[in-house]
């Protein structure tokens, strides 16, 4: 590793049998104008909102500096249903040459919520119809959701069919109905 702007001086001396000597020297000005290179970079990837953010880091190399200075920054933009994570890594060598790698990670919610407590279909006597169940919902990304309930009657010759439907919609418009 040579520091940026180093000077190397080499000298050669030739001496004959009589002790006469001649010295010549060479001065080498060492410069580094090449940016570091990217050996490998993390690929852009899309994740679900409940998945952890990838932690892959780029690998850099340089022609003169084995100990690059690396900086990493992350920014997040949220548009209501998708989070856009932008990761930027920079490698800087001793001579201030630099290279930049950017990774884009959209995080979205495409998973329907789950309904909990939906009862199974039953046959009941007309004077013993069970009350509507208290159904709740869970979601991988939305903390709280309202569960909507609707029922409908279909008359039959002897009795009726009561159809109950529960539904929940998360913040991203993913809906489940049972």
Describe this entry's structure for a reader.
With 178 residues, the protein is an all-beta fold. 0% of the residues lie in helices and 49% in strands. It has no helices and 13 strands. The protein has strands at 7-15, 21-29, 37-40, 47-48, 59-61, 69-78, 83-92, 98-108, 114-116, 136-138, 147-156, 159-169, 175-177. A four-stranded mixed beta sheet has the order 4-8-7-6, with no helix packed on it. A three-stranded antiparallel beta sheet has the order 11-12-13, with no helix packed on it. A hairpin with a 5-residue loop joins strand 7 and strand 8 (98-108). The protein is rod-shaped and about 135 Å long. The model has no long low-confidence stretch (mean pLDDT 92).
Task: Quickly list its features.
about 180 residues; mainly beta; four-stranded mixed beta sheet; three-stranded antiparallel beta sheet; 13 strands
